[in-house]
Amino acid sequence: MSEIKIIDVAVGVLCNDAGEVLFAQRPEGKPMAGYWEFPGGKLESGESVHQALARELHEELGINIGPSIHWRVIEHVYPHAHVLLHFQIIREWTGTPHGKENQALHWQKLVVRDGVVEAQDTQPILPATEPLLVELADAIEQILSV
Length: 146
Ligand SMILES: Nc1nc2c([nH]c(=O)n2[C@@H]2O[C@H](COP(=O)(O)OP(=O)(O)OP(=O)(O)O)[C@@H](O)[C@H]2O)c(=O)[nH]1
Ligand SMILES: [Mg+2]
What we know:
By secondary structure, this protein is α+β, with helices and mostly antiparallel strands. It has helices at 49-61, 133-145; strands at residues 6-14, 20-25, 36-37, 40-42, 64-65, 68-77, 82-90, 93-94, 105-109, 111-113, 116-118.
């Protein structure tokens, strides 16, 4: 009998004061290269979601994050992996994000029009992440209005 290995992934939604979120484009050599995603990566053994996020965002973007707010956990099955994605929203960090793995970055406002988020500069977005953007736009609006 084959066992399904579920991979925990910490996903970081950096949100600036203008309500924009930071997307990164997956570099050549990784599965699904060219797709846009939120920065983040796999938990290493013994790490919490926040610890993994802090490490990954330092490795990928060169920043040090403050607190991260738990938002959603979703499961997704790709041909290459079965993942459990832990989405965290981050409002505070030090340093300016830059693509340390040569990945393109783009700050994107999540504008909902006719029930979908228009994000023409960050297409295609990873299939597990894309359907969450309408609700994420809502969550960000609420966080910024507090
Ligand atoms: N970072 C990130 N990963 C996502 C998102 N959505 C999504 O399905 N994933 C999936 O979660 C997994 C994340 O793995 P990763 O390749 O980024 O992991 P990593 O940074 O540790 O990479 P590495 O193994 O090359 O060191 C991939 O299977 C990716 O397809 C997202 O928005 N952000
Ligand atoms: Mg990654």
